Amino acid sequence: MAERFRKVTVLTGHYGCGKTNLAVNLALMLAQYGRVSVVDTDIVNPYFRTADFTKMLEKQGINVVYPMYAGTNLDIPVLDFDLERIVNESDYTVIDAGGSDAGAFPLGRFGRLFGGLGDELSVIYVFNMYRLVDRSAEETVRIMREIERASGLKCTAVVNNSNLGSETTAEIIDNSRDFADKVCALTGLPLAFTCVCEEKDTDGGNFLVKRIVTLPWENSEESEI
Amino acid sequence: MEKVLMKGNEALAEAAMRAGCKCFFGYPITPQTEISAYLAKNMAKRGGVFLQAESEIAAINMVLGAAASGVRAMTSSSGPGISLKSEGVSYIAGSDLPCVIVNVQRGGPGLGGIQPSQSDYWQATRALGHGDFQMVVYAPASVQETIDMTYLAFDTADRFRMPVMILSDGLLGQMMEPVVFPQIEVKIPEKPWACCGHKNKRPHNIINSLYLQPDELENSVNERFKRYEIVKRECPAAESSFCEDAEIVVCAFGAAARIAKSAVNTAREKGIKVGLFRPQTLYPFPVELIEKACRKAKIVLSVEMNKGQMVDDIRLALNCRLPVEFFGRHGGNIPTVKEVSAQIESISERIK
C-alpha cells in the first residue's frame, strides 16, 4: 500500500468529510514503512483534529506537528513550524488541512515548498457523498475548485471517503461508487482509493479506514494532546 | 428519507431555513461560527436574508425588527455574545415578539475559552436580560435532536409570542452524526399584530415595550405570565431511561447527558439500579416528569459541564425530598464516562 504514496500527501476536502480520520489511518499505515510526520495545518476548526491524537500517534513513532494553539482555549491562527525541515526529515509527510476553502487557505503559505516537490507531492481531494444535503457530484466538484483557488494548489487525485459515521456499513460505501465515478469524470482526476470499513474489502482500489475520531461517550479511552 | 452526516451547527442552520426562518442576523464567535457560515452561503439562495451585523447588540435588535414585521427570525452566538444580546432579548420579551436565539456554549465567565461548556444554564433559565420575563429553553443532546428542536423552537416562539432559546454547546455544535430531516409541512400562524403595512385596511399596529402608566405595565406583565402558565403546563419535556426501579437517578442535559448515558449503561451492566433523567426543556423545568422518574430514587446525581447550575432546579422540583449530589467538569473540559461511572459506583456503595 505504501508504494502508492508519494513523499508528501496533502489531504484537502469539505469540512467534516473525514480528513482527520483518514490522516490518522494513513499515518499509522505508512509508519510501517518509514519515518512519518503528520502535520495538522487547521487554524479554523477548534475541535476534532489530528492534534487530538498526538499521544497515540507518538507511541507508534509518528512525529505529530500542529499549530501551537491547537486544543487550547485560544482562537489564534498561527502556524509556527518549519514544514520544509519536517518534510526533509521524514520519508512520508501527511498534511491534514483544514476543511473547505477557509481551512485550505493557509496551505498557500507553503506554495514555494510544494512547487519544488514536483512528483513527490500529491494533493488529494477527499469527499464524502453523505455530507451533502443535495448530494450532487457537481457540488462536490464546486467545493474542490474553491479549495484549489484558496490554497493555490491543484488536486492530483480524489479519495472517496463516503460514510455515515458510526452507522457506516459496507453497503453504504458501495452505494457511493457511482457518485465517485461521476466526480472522477467531472474532474478528470484518478480515484486514489475508496475508504472501506471491513478488512475483507481491502483490495486494489480500497483502503481500510478504522473509526478513530470518535465522540467522547463512544469509548473509554481518553485522547489528550 | 435519506441520511446525511452533518455537523451540529450546520444541521441547526439547515433546519432553521427549512422551518421557515427568513432572517438571520449574527456576529461571529467560536464555537458557533458554522451556523453563520452555513447561512451566509445558503440563506440568499432560499429567499432569505443573512446579515453579519456590526455587533451582537445590533444583531439582536435586527431580530427584534424582523420579528415585529412577522417573519421568522433567528440569531446565534456563544456565551460572551449572548451576554451582549441580553438587552435586546429583554426588549423582545417585553414586546411579545417570537424569535429563536441559539447559544452554542463555551467556557466562561468573561472571554473564558472556546472549548465546550454548559455554564450558561443560569443565564438561559433565570435572567437573560432585565425585567420579569422567561424564555423557553430547549436542550438538545444529539445532532438529530438539534434539528427537531429547531423546528419546535420556531413553532413555540410563534405560538406564545416569546423568545425561545436553543441551548447547544461546543461539542454538540462541532460533532458530526447521521441525521434525517423530517418531512414536515411548516405552518406559520397568522400574525395579525405584525407591523407589515396596514395598507389603509386596518388600524396600525404598534410594537413597544414602554408603558407610561404603572397599571398598564403591570397588566401587560400579568398577561404575559398567564401565557407562561400555559407554557409550564404544555411544554415540559424529558427523556427517562431505566428510571422505573432506579435507586440512583443521574440527571443531565445536552452533551453531558450523552456521557452520563454511557456511564449509566456501564453501571447497569454491573447490576447497579441507576437511571438517567434528561430534561429536554430547561425552562420550563420538567417538574412532574422528574418526580415520576425519581419515585424509587434515594439520591440524585446531577452531571453537568459547569459548577452545578441545575442542582437547585432539581431540588426545587423534588421539594428537597431527596439529596442531590453533583459531579461536573468545566473550563472547556468534558467529564469522561470513566469519571461519571466512578461517581455512580461510589454512591451505590454508600447507599447500600
CATH topology of the largest domain in chain B: the name is Rossmann fold
Strands ordered across the widest β-sheet of chain B: 3-2-4-5-7-6-12
Number of helices of chain A: 8
Oligomer: heterodimer
Computed over alpha carbons, the radius of gyration of chain A is: 16 Å
Query: What's the helix-strand series of chain B?
Result: EHEHEHEHEHEHEHEHEEHEEHEHEH
Share in helix of chain A: 25-40%
The fraction of residues in strands of chain A falls at 15-25%
Give helix % range of chain B. Answer: 40-55%
Instruction: Using the coordinates above, name the CATH class of chain A.
Output: Alpha Beta
Strand order of the largest sheet of chain A: 3-2-4-1-5-6-7-8
CATH superfamily grouping of chain A: P-loop containing nucleotide triphosphate hydrolases
The general outline of chain A is: globular
Overall geometry of chain B: globular
Poorly predicted residue ranges of chain A = 220-225
Termini separation of chain A comes to: 29 Å
Q: What would CATH call the homologous superfamily of the largest domain in chain B?
A: Thiamin diphosphate (ThDP)-binding fold, Pyr/PP domains
Order of helices and strands of chain A: EHEHEHEHHEHEHHEE
Written overview of the protein:
The complex is a heterodimer of chains A (225) and B (352). Chain A is built from 8 helices and 8 strands; from the N terminus they run βαβαβαβααβαβααββ. Chain A is an alpha/beta fold and 225 residues long. In chain A, strands 3-2-4-1-5-6-7-8 form an 8-stranded parallel β-sheet, with helices on both faces. The model of chain A is unreliable at 220-225 (pLDDT under 50). Chain B folds into 2 domains: 4-234, Thiamin diphosphate (ThDP)-binding fold, Pyr/PP domains (Rossmann fold, 3-Layer(aba) Sandwich), CATH 3.40.50; 238-350, Rossmann fold (3-Layer(aba) Sandwich), CATH 3.40.50.920. Chain B has 12 helices and 14 strands. Chain B has helices at residues 8-18, 33-42, 56-68, 79-94, 121-125, 143-160, 170-174, 214-234, 254-269, 287-293, 311-317, 337-350; strands at 4-7, 21-26, 49-52, 72-77, 99-105, 136-138, 163-169, 176-179, 238-241, 248-251, 274-279, 281-283, 299-304, 324-328. A 7-stranded mixed β-sheet of chain B has the order 3-2-4-5-7-6-12, sandwiched between helices. A 5-stranded mixed β-sheet of chain B has the order 9-11-10-13-14, sandwiched between helices. In chain B, α4 (79-94) links the parallel β4 (72-77) and β5 (99-105). The longest helix of chain B has 21 residues, at 214-234. Chain B is globular, with a radius of gyration of 21 Å. The mean pLDDT of chain B is 97. Classes of the chains: A alpha/beta (225), B alpha/beta (352).
